[in-house]
User: Which sequence fits this backbone?
C-alpha cells in the first residue's frame, strides 16, 4: 500500500461501550492485566483478532491477542514473564503459567514486503522500520471480522473495514482485493473455509469466487504450515463442516490429494462416509473434552488410499495381506508427507493401528489375544468400530472385540481358543480344560 492508498482510507468507526457486547468480565484476567499495564505505561493497547470476533459472537475465545504501538523491547521491560520470539518479526509472549498472551506491535503490511527484498543488504535498521501505526496494521489482516480492535483506554471497538456489519451479517469478507490477498498468502483460502465452518458464516461471493482458480497456489506452501492448518481445520470441533467447505471449494486436494482423488471416483460416496463419520466422532470427543490425536485423524483420511494400494500390491506381488498393508502404509504415508508433513510420532503408530484392522479378522490363538494388550489397541479398536458403523467391517467382528475386552482372563482364553500354558499334553480332554473356570 502506498501513501495515497493510506490517505484514501477513512478513519475508524468507533463503537462506544454501550453499543457492543464486549465485557471485560469475558476477557481473561491475564489479557486484561497486559492491556492495562501497556496503557498505564502510555502505550496504545488493543485486544485484536479472534478474541474480539469471538466475544462479539458470544463465543469463548481460545486465546487473546494484544496489539500495541510499543515495540517488543519496550514490551519486555514492562513484564518480567515475557519472552521475545520470531527473528524477522519479533513479538512478545507474556507467560502466566499455562496461558500465553501474545503481544504484537502494529505492523505496516506494504512496507514489510518492500523491506523483505532489501533486508539482505541492511538488516537490523529496516526491521525496526517494519513497525507502523494502527492505521497500517489493519490492512495486513485477512478478514474484516478479524480486524476489529477493542481499546482498553475507553472500551470502544475500532472498526476500519465494516467488520461489525460483517459480524452481524455472518459474512467472511477479505480486506482489499481477494485475488491479491490470496496471492500474498494462499493459506487465507483455507482460513476462509475454517472460519466459515467454525463460525457458521458464509464466504462473501467475491471472496469465494477466485478460490477454485487460485487453489493450486497452495502447492507452494510449506508442508509444515499445511499440517498446522490441517489440525486447526479438523481438530477444533468443527471437522465435519470444515470438510464440507473444503470439498465444496475443491481445496481438499491440496491437503490430502490421494483421498480427494478417491472422493471423485466410483467409491467416492463410501470414502466420504468414512471421513464424515470419523470427523463427527472427533468433533464429539472435542465437545466432551476428550483427547484427540492426529494419528487417528490421519488414519481416517488415509485408510481408503492405503487399502486400495494394498489391494493392488496383492494383485501384483506374492505377499501376505499383512505385508501388502504394511507396504501400502509406507508408500501412502510418505507421499502424504510431501503435502502435509505429519511427524513420525503420529505416522508410525498409525501404521500399527491400520495393520491391526487386518489382524482383528483372526479371532483365534494367542497372537490374536495379545492384540488386547497392544499399545495401540484402543485406537485400533475405535477405528474398527468406525469402520463397522460405515459398513466396512462386520458388526459381529466389532462385537467380538467389544465383548472380549470385558471378560476375565480365563474367559478370554476360551474366546480365543487359547489353551492354558503348560497344558499341552494330549491326554487332557477339552472338557477338563474348561472345567472350574
Ligand atoms: P483462531 O485463533 O480462533 O483460530 P484468529 O482469528 O485469532 O482465530 P489467528 O491465526 O490466531 O486467528 O490469528 C490472529 C489474527 O492475526 C487474525 O485474527 C488476523 O487478524 C491475523 N492473521 C492471522 N493469520 C493471518 C493471515 N494468514 N493473513 C492475514 N492476517 C492474518
Ligand atoms: Mg487466535
Assistant:
Amino acid at each position: 500500500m502506498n501513501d495515497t492508498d493510506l490517505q484514501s482510507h477513512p478513519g475508524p468507526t468507533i463503537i462506544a461501550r454501550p453499543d457492543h457486547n464486549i465485557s471485560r468480565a469475558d476477557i481473561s484476567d491475564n489479557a486484561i492485566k497486559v492491556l492495562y499495564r501497556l496503557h498505564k505505561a502510555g502505550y496504545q493497547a488493543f485486544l485484536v483478532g479472534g478474541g474480539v470476533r469471538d466475544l462479539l459472537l458470544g463465543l469463548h475465545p481460545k486465546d487473546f491477542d494484544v496489539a500495541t504501538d510499543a515495540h517488543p523491547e519496550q514490551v519486555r521491560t514492562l513484564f518480567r514473564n515475557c519472552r521475545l520470539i520470531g527473528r524477522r518479526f519479533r513479538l512478545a509472549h507474556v507467560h502466566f503459567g499455562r496461558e500465553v498472551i501474545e503481544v504484537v506491535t502494529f505492523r505496516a503490511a506494504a512496507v514489510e514486503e518492500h523491506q523483505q527484498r532489501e533486508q539482505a543488504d541492511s538488516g537490523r535498521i529496516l526491521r525496526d522500520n517494519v513497525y507502523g501505526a494502527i492505521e497500517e496494521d489493519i490492512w495486513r489482516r485477512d478478514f474484516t471480522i478479524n480486524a476489529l480492535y477493542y481499546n482498553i483506554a475507553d472500551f470502544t471497538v475500532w472498526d476500519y473495514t465494516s467488520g461489525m456489519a460483517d459480524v452481524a451479517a455472518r459474512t467472511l469478507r477479505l480486506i482489499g482485493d481477494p485475488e491479491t490477498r490470496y496471492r500474498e498468502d494462499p493459506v487465507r483460502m483455507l482460513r476462509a473455509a475454517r472460519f466459515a465452518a467454525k463460525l457458521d458464516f458464509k464466504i462473501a461471493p467475491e471472496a469465494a469466487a477466485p478460490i477454485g482458480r487460485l487453489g493450486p497456489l497452495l502447492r507452494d506452501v510449506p508442508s509444515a504450515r499445511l499440517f498446522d492448518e490441517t489440525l486447526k481445520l479438523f481438530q477444533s470441533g468443527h471437522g465435519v463442516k470444515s470438510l464440507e467447505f473444503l470439498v465444496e471449494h475443491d481445496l481438499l486436494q491440496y491437503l490430502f490429494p490421494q483421498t480427494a482423488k478417491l472422493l471423485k471416483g466410483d467409491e467416492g460416496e463410501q470414502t466420504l462416509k468414512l471421513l464424515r463419520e470419523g470427523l463427527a466422532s472427533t468433533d464429539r470427543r472435542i465437545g466432551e473434552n476428550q483427547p484427540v490425536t492426529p494419528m487417528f485423524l490421519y488414519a481416517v483420511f488415509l485408510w481408503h488410499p492405503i487399502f486400495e494400494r494394498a489391494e493392488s500390491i496383492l494383485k501384483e506381488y506374492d505377499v501376505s495381506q499383512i505385508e501388502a498393508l504394511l507396504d501400502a502404509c509406507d508408500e501412502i504415508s510418505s507421499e502424504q508427507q510431501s503435502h502435509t508433513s505429519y511427524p513420525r510420532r503420529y505416522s508410525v503408530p498409525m501404521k500399527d493401528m491400520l495393520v491391526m484392522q487386518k489382524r482383528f479378522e483372526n479371532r483365534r490363538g494367542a497372537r490374536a489375544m495379545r492384540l488386547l494388550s497392544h499399545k495401540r489397541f484402543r485406537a485400533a479398536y475405535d477405528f474398527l468400530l468406525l469402520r463397522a458403523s460405515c459398513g466396512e467391517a462386520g458388526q459381529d467382528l466389532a462385537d467380538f472385540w467389544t465383548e472380549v475386552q470385558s471378560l476375565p482372563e480365563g474367559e478370554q482364553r476360551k474366546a480365543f481358543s487359547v489353551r492354558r500354558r503348560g497344558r499341552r499334553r494330549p491326554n487332557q480332554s477339552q472338557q477338563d480344560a474348561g472345567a472350574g473356570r
Remarks:
- The first strand starts at residue 13 and ends at 15.
- The mean pLDDT is 90.
- The first helix runs from residue 3 to 8.
- The domain at 3-221 is CATH 3.30.460.10 (Beta Polymerase; domain 2).
